[in-house]
TrEMBL record:
Membrane-traversing stretches: none
GO biological process, any: small molecule metabolic process
Keywords: Hydrolase, Metal-binding
Domain spans labelled Fumarylacetoacetase-like C-terminal: 73-276
SUPFAM superfamilies per UniProt: FAH
InterPro entries xrefs: FAH (IPR051121), Fumarylacetoacetase-like_C (IPR011234), Fumarylacetoacetase_C_sf (IPR036663)
Keyword NADP applies: no
Protein name: Fumarylacetoacetate hydrolase
Domain of life: Bacteria
Keyword hit for Metal-binding: yes
Family designation: Belongs to the FAH family.
Coiled coil regions, renumbered to chain: none
Listed Gene3D superfamilies: Fumarylacetoacetase-like, C-terminal domain
Amino acid sequence: MRLANVEGRLAVLRDDRAIDVATASNGRFGPDPQEIYPVWDDFLAWADIASLPAGEPLDAGALGPVVPRPRQIFAVGLNYVDHTIESGFIQPAEPMIFTKFASCLTGPRGDVVVPSDTVDFEVELVAVIGRTARSVDAADGWDFVAGLTIGQDISDRGLQMRGDPPQFSLGKSHPGFGPVGPCLTTLDQVGDRDNLSLTSAINGEVVQRGHTRDMVFPVLVLVSYLSAVCTLFPGDLIFTGTPPGVGMGRTPPRYLVPGDVLETEIGGLGEMRHTLIAPA
């Protein structure tokens, strides 16, 4: 099943059509995409037996972030060895965790303002939590994931690396710096969830290419690690890290500039497209 935020309303996607969940369920589930995660198991049981209508033609430009207001957003740094090397760091022995603030979230299409000359790109697999998780065994980590989506951890490197020690989160949280989408894909529709291809392209040129099999700490380990400290709530997001090829790691560095078109794709999950623009 694929779920989307269509103009602020939760929809099931089928081919190129969107089925409004509130309407199809006769109000059993409301229209707010955020509110489906606390009742995730009930929703899955209904969707499994529901006779859904054909729906309406999908306008990709109407899609918003499938999780618009998560309680928590976790992000993982240096989770691919080659990215760690290109960034000039030593591979951490444990997951390196920071956050992106929820005000940075945006949908899979549209414009993103470039606030500086050091704005970088990072394609990432994003896991969406579907059940409350606390002290989860790593072997059970996938049981707490509702589904997967695509993310871009857009980063203002100048702000991210400012200070001693640097504080990552603000530099990754400008408005629009957290695109997610185009939809949430449930795990039964993902295929090999541990071997998905990831790419970023700028103006049609592929600049990042990787596979989730190369994660140092895979999703089930991240769920276990995080839940040992924090309670994970339904609808929380985990940005799982980026493969190599980011602008900061290039010689000379390659950063995003107004007019660039950033395309982000993960095999089986879809693609996103954003245009970078100058501040007003």
